[in-house]
């Protein structure tokens, strides 16, 4: 199998990115689009470099909430999945509720958590992130732990293995691709949840409040610059998970070996 060169792999998305930016700049200037509707990329870039320090200071609070909530929600999801995968009755009774709650939008959780813990309390944002990352992790892990080839289970039983040995040697390795798929989903959800939670109340030194205040003061270039920062942070978080995936399961088909 021939290897794909870095240019062939990354060239097209990079070219599309710069094409979109060029068209954005051209159309905004050609149609004289007002800044409050959509600033030009050059205006956003200027604001980006002018306000980078302030934005990153605000982003530090949001990142902490996202990371702690991510760890709490993902860890709890894995733990509950291990329990529910062991007992069929528990799994069948709990999964419908988990799927239903997973469809609840973030904005429904944010006011509740802010009311419980206080809008300026970091626990409210951590709880929001934990809730929205718990269910994708749990659902994916349960699938990974249960969707095992029957032949593998029968082979392990033929060796008189215990359920714990089956879990460690068969079910968990089978669940690792599902685990990392869930982690990649949760990595983006965690930052989104933290920022959206801050829209409903948070300290002044948070990214969501910064974006909201800059937009309310009609400094839309600064708001867009903060949005760019949040997008870059989400991409960085996602890439970290991909790196860990390549280290943990280099044998899986989801890893591109070309």
List keywords for this structure.
258 residues; mainly alpha; MetI-like fold
How would you briefly describe this protein structure?
With 258 residues, this protein is an all-alpha fold.
Percent of residues in helices: over 70%
What characteristic shape results from the CA principal axes? globular
Oligomeric state: single chain
Write the element-wise H/E pattern from the N-terminal end onward: HHHHHHHHHH
The CATH architecture category of the largest domain equals: Orthogonal Bundle
Radius of gyration: 22 Å
What is the first-to-last residue Cα distance?
Answer: 7 Å
- Helices, by number, come to 10
Number of domains: 2
Q: What structural class results from the helix and strand content?
A: mainly alpha
Question: Layout of helices and strands, plus pairs?
Answer:
Layout: H1 6-30, H2 41-50, H3 52-86, H4 88-102, H5 106-117, H6 122-146, H7 150-158, H8 163-199, H9 207-216, H10 220-248
Helix pairs in contact: 2-10, 3-4, 3-6, 3-8, 3-10, 4-6, 5-6, 5-8, 6-8, 8-9, 8-10, 9-10
What features would you describe in this structure?
The structure is a single chain. The model has no long low-confidence stretch (mean pLDDT 85). The chain is an all-alpha fold. The chain contains ten helices and no strands. The chain has two domains: 1-33; 41-248, MetI-like (MetI-like fold, Orthogonal Bundle).
